[in-house]
Amino acid sequence: EDVRARLAVLSEVPHLWTEAVRRWSTMADPYRSPAGPDQNSEYLLWQTLAGAWPISLERAQTYMEKATHEAKQRTAWIDADVPYDISIGDFVAGVLGDTALCADIEAFVVDSLLVPGRVNALAQKVIQLTMPGVPDVYQGTELWDLSLVDPDNRRPVDYWLRARLLASLESGTLPGLGEGDVHDKGAAKLLAVSRALSLRRRRPELFDESGSYTPLAAVGPVAGHVIAFSRGGGAVTVAPRLTVRLQGVGGWGDTALPLPVGHWRDAFTGAEFDGGVVRMADLLGGFPVGLLERIPR
To answer: pTM of this prediction?
Structure first.
């Protein structure tokens, strides 16, 4: 899910992405052979590396082997094109063995995708956990998880790490997004997951089949960048969308969200707000997403 959240950012930076792919393709010329890769498979590799970076050679080769065989365009499990299969594996090995090329890929991820991808991941997660329906948390995805399709997503989960990070969240320290750090574990996502599930457990009547769902419309110059809804009249989810474009126009400005009547506390930051029109810069000033619970004054 976090790979998809990161790749979604590419729709906001198409020119940067086009330049990067052309540059990487040129740098990778020495690793091609007459047998392959074809352009479609090469482009899939660049997408995969951008979405799942940092990724090991073994994981990348295994994924590309599965993807090309199941696409059944040039090879297949029951009708393999062996020279083509070898060319794919060698190409991936050449790319990930090229220090300059890997540094370029990582720089692109850090500069253009990392933080907005993580904001996307938080947004889609808090929406998923509070929207109508039965939420599901796949094993390991309580932290940033850049797994690909099976068997990559069946790797062992470090539950001790999750327990330690979960305990640290009780101190009240608000985790950041690990700006510039591709190895950040994802305490911010663990905060969002744990607090959203905690609210569901404490207030099941807000989210079960009897709990209402009401979209909330933001007002102001960048209102289209806000996704918000209330559940059961006692919880409000607030999330941003297209954050690269949002930053490009200078942020939230005077955009605001009219909250329902009542007094509200953010499950992530502890900030409190009265019902009525509240500036988005205040609602999401401490954390990229919000989950407000109506509380007594």
So the answer is: 0.95
